Amino acid sequence: LCSRRDPGESDKRDSDATRHQGVNTSLAVTIIHIRSLDSRWSPRLALLYAFRCRSLFEEYYQVNLTRFFEMLRMDNDKLGARICPLVCVCCLLAALVANGFDVPMTLLEGAVAEGAVCLDGSPPAYHFSPGFGSGMNNWLVHMEGGGWCTSVQDCLAQRDTFRGSSKYMKPLSFSGILGNSQNSNPDFYNWNKVKIRYCDGSSFTGDVDEVDPATKLYFRGAKIWLAVIEDLLAKGMNKAENALLSGCSAGGLASILHCDKFHDLLPAGATVKCLSDAGYFINAKDITGTESIKAYYNEVVNTHGSAKNLPSSCTSRMTPSMCFFPQYVVPQMRTPLFILNAAYDAWQIKNILAPSAADPHKTWNDCKLDIKQCSSDQLLIVQGFRSEFLNALAALGNSSARGMFINSCYAHCQSGSQDTWLAADSPVLDNIPIGKAVGDWFYDRSAFRKIDCPYPCDASCRNRVYD
Q: Which CATH number is correct for 101-451, 3.40.50.1820, 3.30.1130.10, 3.40.50.300, 3.90.850.10?
């Protein structure tokens, strides 16, 4: 009941990693104890375990269930049979709070006629949770991540999956920055919240009119992005008072590449800002000294015809593929931007610093799966990558409009999961969790520009361990 699937995004597939292992284990043990009671069940024991469940998920998820538990305070043996189900409900609530809430999918069937389609030609999709109360005129648009496909062969392999077709997409759970609990997402909980599904493999930049009849692949990422935004404008975003464009991984890169366009499409009087989560990919050499990521991005841009949709402020100065690197785009950006990134970003360590092609003998495999398994020599190289990452961040400048939360965790994407966004044990910098830092920056309560000390100094990190 209490083990759960991580709603956060990975690059090639959904992650099956679980979060909050401590609370999961405690709740699971509690359930085992409850099931072992059998005929020895009593109201007293039921209450004991019920309140144990309550304390666990109130601590971890910062929710208050006082009113719910008032019904359990009645000292009456006749209620024993009714208390057991309530304990189960309690545990179920813990799991539901952790998972967030499922949001149905909207298919933009009408966008197909405009050429806005996934790799396989199916319509684009997004998930929409309407705002309420004071947030009815505020909009948070989040772009899903999922890596890139670099060639026709690569995109064909992706076409018949949820990364290339809306036919394989399912409802998603909203949590973290998309959560609707005031306790766990105080600054954005009641906003209109949208998650744009990722099915084009180009960070929503592709634009090739011709379709090869042999492959039947469509490279239309930019059209997808515009079609969704126009649909949201028609549904009320044209009256937005506050708007935040965010994204994770490839979606985090998209939030940078499309930031100024998004700003220009919103009402003139609206406060519009952008958040890039794990999207600040840097131009760095791999462990062999090869510029592999530069060649990789060049393939993406050429395959998808992305050049025309990259910021002209960059492409007027550099070759288009270089404008896939945020460090060359952000200096000319006009819209306020917040960079949320791990200095030891797991995707970048695995794919920019030590890609498989640069490590044929797989000597880096253990290190890439778990940073604690890095040898001393490998850790020195990883620390050097951190230095390169921080140098690339200099492009942000010193303006208070540019916020940053750069921690020393081995992680990738931290805004979409409650345990890393805002929880009792979430990552912090100067004792401030990510959710509060982003909220303070957006509402101009305080500027937030913090860079963590080098690994392994930060005890608040939730370092990722991969299978």
A: 3.40.50.1820
Domain boundaries, given as residue ranges, for the chain: 21-99, 101-451
Q: Which of 412, 415, 419, 452 is catalytic?
A: 412
12 has a pLDDT exceeding 60: no
To the query of whether residue 345 is one of the catalytic residues in this protein, the response is yes
Which tens digit of pLDDT belongs to each residue from 110-127? 999 999 999 999 999 999
Task: Say which of 15, 165, 173, 249 is annotated catalytic.
Answer: 249
Burial letters 234-247, b for 16+ CB under 10 A, else e: eeebeebebbbbbb
Catalytic residue among 187, 200, 231, 345: 345
Assessment of whether the complete model's pTM goes beyond 0.85: no
Q: Is 120 annotated as catalytic?
A: no
- pLDDT for residue 101: 76
Question: Would residue 460 show up in a list of annotated catalytic residues for this protein?
Answer: no
